[in-house]
Amino acid sequence: MPVKVTETWLASSQVAGLRGPARKAYETFLDDLASRGCAALGYRVTGPEPLPRLCVKHLRGNDRVVVAFENRSSAWVLLVGPHEDGDPGRNVYDRLYELAGVTPPPSWKRTRPSCCSETGEAPLTSPEVVDDLVLRARAVGRKHRNQFRR
């Protein structure tokens, strides 16, 4: 079943900064996501809700993409960016936690369960939670954009 893929405003602005092989890796991923759904992703995020309903794919190098499935035929690209542990301003997971309104404890151990269930189903995120994440993505993008203008 084909999946309709939509980017948040924040993801679109992050993708606009991708060049060369990084851009190609993202575009290849989008095609794969549209045709294979959750099988195109690597793992689910662990932690409090809504994190376990979100999936991540390693694109190229440190680049990651975070996706939420609203239903079996609709996915949202929430974030695209590098996983940079040493630079909180550039760490896609820090942005994700901000987006989800979650503050991970310092000893939080992330695991990587498969994105798809054993029956091949995507972890669904309720439309209300997806709407909230999309709105927060806009606010987070605006906040970070304004920080760099000072």
Automatic annotation (TrEMBL):
The protein's name in its UniProt record: Uncharacterized protein
Natural source organism: Allokutzneria albata
Domain of life: Bacteria
